[in-house]
Design a protein that fits this description.
The complex is a heterodimer of chains A (263) and B (307).
Chain A lengths: L1 H30 L9 H7 L2 H34 L5 H13 L2 H11 L12 H29 L3 H10 L4 H12 L1 H16 L3 H5 L5 H11 L3 H24 L11
Helix pairs in contact in A: 1-12, 2-12, 3-6, 3-9, 3-11, 4-6, 5-6, 6-9, 7-8, 9-12
Chain B lengths: L29 H29 L10 H5 L3 H34 L4 H15 L4 H11 L4 H10 L13 H25 L3 H9 L4 H29 L3 H7 L6 H10 L6 H33 L1
Helix pairs in contact in B: 1-12, 3-7, 3-9, 4-7, 5-10, 7-9, 8-9, 9-12, 11-12
Classes of the chains: A mainly alpha (263), B mainly alpha (307).
Chain lengths: 263, 307
């Protein structure tokens, strides 16, 4: 057992080195913008850049819209599949896995062709339409995670009994979903939301191909033109991702303890 | 449990319990239909139609007729080599990611390490598996790029120039090393619940029968985890195969992988043959789909054997 433990330590330390070295190196690089020693100038330069603020704000808003659209699309579907339409489950689950199989760049290529200015639904014709397209593309990107988060949330509550009780009290189906089911799975929904945010905020490929002024595109731009600012941006992104994941961990403490139930 | 622990890999959905009566539309079912409609409409508009459209476009000539020319166009040496490099990088980073992730997860969960390490590793894995794209490229440039910290330290302290000895961040190994930064943690997240599922009694029973710890893993642990491992492998492969941003930020257009080729095609669509872009996309879907078919076939055999 002792030797076992030594091996575990060795593996852990090698892994830790691989994962921490790039972070340390990046931080070191970002702090060395001046020859005189460590300064935070690279961070100040990035954070005070108006384009940073504009693109970051834009991506945050797109991220929030993605979460709202994703929840509206996924929650009712997951609810009805669990309650009334279990025979559709394999089909729906397959659809939620499609974005893991078909690369995002292929999907967005399809969107650009399908919804261009000469099509029936010319979404790429206006800025607002392209924003909508970007949001739906991000919903697709987040779908596997969002669906699973929400479905796991639904599994931990007694959907059938809650629905029956609410129906007896005269609630309509919309009321049941918004006022009974949704508040009960809010922790799961928020976990999915933060994960979505982590995926979406720094996304580059789709935003760049749709020509939207997103944070990922800005980062790429800085990377091509500056030396030290990219490292600062990488650290900032890491902190943002860490923040989103930290929120999920925090939320998990409030989650119902019956999560282990499988069916 | 964070939600990304719960990813079940393609086709892993539980079988639906048999419905008592066949579902039939009636006015009382209107709520169900309306409730599930947004999802179905979304799936058709943003998942199925774009894919079908590209498949059709791959077989459509400029004049609008049916053609195999676009598919034949994939035979160009440049495109063949881009597919080959993409497949190699994806396979290598998936294999290394899966093995390293499995070993780390085993060490952290079953290695009797102090309690907080497990949750620390899992939390960090959640962050690192989502730390991809542009910032990841920046991080690796600052680490093992030509002016990176590790490069400089190795050169000045140990007198070892990794770039002289053939390493290049903008190459097969460089990109594979970089991709492992999100592949390994993804593996840890997916395999951790499966390792949790290995009962303590099994290793005790094996030990009682005289098995060494490594024998427990080779004869019991790995075979039980096998279907999971294979599923994750295909997921990791697809994950790397579709990645664009990291490679683009590292190398611009200079590294010839298939996503970069497609990116260039989409950007320059007006000048180039639009059918070829669609054929490239179709080729990517075919490769990713093939990886999943292989997984399904192997998994079916592995499960049969487990019974």
């Amino acid at each position: 057992m002792k030797r076992n433990r030594i091996w575990a330590w060795i593996v852990f330390l090698i892994g830790a080195a691989y994962f921490l070295l790039p972070l340390v190196a990046t931080l070191d690089f970002a702090l060395r913008i001046r020859r005189t020693g460590y300064t935070l100038d690279a961070f100040t330069s990035v954070l005070t850049d108006p384009r940073f603020q504009a693109t970051f704000g834009y991506s945050l808003i797109i991220g929030l819209c993605t979460i709202v659209a994703g929840v509206v699309i996924v929650v009712p579907a997951a609810y009805f599949v669990r309650l009334r339409l279990p025979q559709l489950r394999p089909f729906i689950e397959f659809l939620t896995l499609v974005p893991l199989i078909i690369p995002a760049i292929v999907l967005v290529f399809g969107y650009i062709r399908l919804y261009n200015t000469s099509s029936i639904l010319p979404l790429t014709g206006s800025a607002l339409g392209t924003d909508a397209l970007l949001i739906f593309a991000y919903v697709a990107l987040a779908l596997p995670y969002l669906y699973r988060a929400i479905d796991t949330g639904l599994r931990t509550i007694d959907v059938a009994t809650l629905t029956e009780a609410a129906t007896i009290l005269g609630a309509s189906q919309i009321t049941i979903i918004t006022k009974v089911i949704f508040p009960n799975i809010i922790v799961a929904v928020l976990s999915g939301a933060f994960l979505t945010l982590a995926i979406v905020v720094g996304e580059f490929t789709i935003a760049s191909l749709l020509n939207r002024p997103a944070f990922g595109v800005y980062m790429q731009n800085v990377g091509a033109n500056r030396a030290f600012e990219p490292a600062a941006l990488a650290i900032i992104s890491f902190v943002i991702t860490w923040g989103a994941m930290g929120m999920i961990q925090l939320l998990a403490r409030f989650a119902p303890r019956t999560a282990a139930r499988t069916d | 449990m964070s939600p990304n622990n719960a990813i079940s890999v393609a086709g892993a959905g539980q079988p639906a319990p048999a419905a008592r009566t066949a579902w039939r539309f009636s006015w009382s079912n209107l709520g169900e239909v309306l409730g599930i409609a947004p999802f179905i409409i979304f799936a058709i508009m943003f998942l199925l139609l774009p894919t079908i459209y590209l498949v059709a476009a791959a077989f459509t000539s400029k004049a609008g007729g049916f053609t195999f020319d676009n598919i034949v166009g994939l035979g160009e040496p440049l495109i063949i080599s881009s597919f080959w490099l993409s497949i190699r990088i994806s396979a290598a980073s998936a294999a290394i990611g899966a093995i390293a992730g499995l070993i780390i997860a085993m060490a952290v969960i079953r290695g009797n390490l102090p309690g907080p390490i497990r949750s620390l590793v899992l939390t960090f894995s959640g962050v690192a598996s989502n730390f991809a794209g542009i910032p990841l490229a920046f991080a690796f440039l600052s680490t093992v790029g030509r002016l990176g910290l590790v490069t400089i330290i190795l050169k000045t302290v140990f007198g070892f120039d990794i770039y002289r000895s053939g390493f290049n961040l903008l190459s097969f190994w460089g990109l594979t090393l970089t991709y492992c930064y999100f592949q390994v943690p993804l593996m840890i997240l997916i395999i951790a619940p499966a390792i949790d599922g290995l009962k303590k009694e099994w290793s005790e029973a094996a030990a009682t029968l005289g098995a060494k710890p490594w024998q427990f893993w080779t004869n019991i642990g790995i075979p039980v985890l096998w279907p999971n491992l294979l599923g994750t492998l295909s997921l990791l492969f697809a994950n790397a195969f579709g990645a664009v941003a990291t490679a683009y930020a590292l190398t611009g257009m200079s590294l010839n992988i298939v996503t970069i080729q497609l990116y260039a095609q989409i950007r320059g669509d007006a000048l180039q043959n639009p059918g070829l872009g669609a054929a490239l996309a179709l080729g990517m879907v075919a490769v990713a789909g093939l990886a999943n078919v292989i997984y399904l076939v192997v998994r079916a055999r592995a499960e049969r054997w487990l019974k």
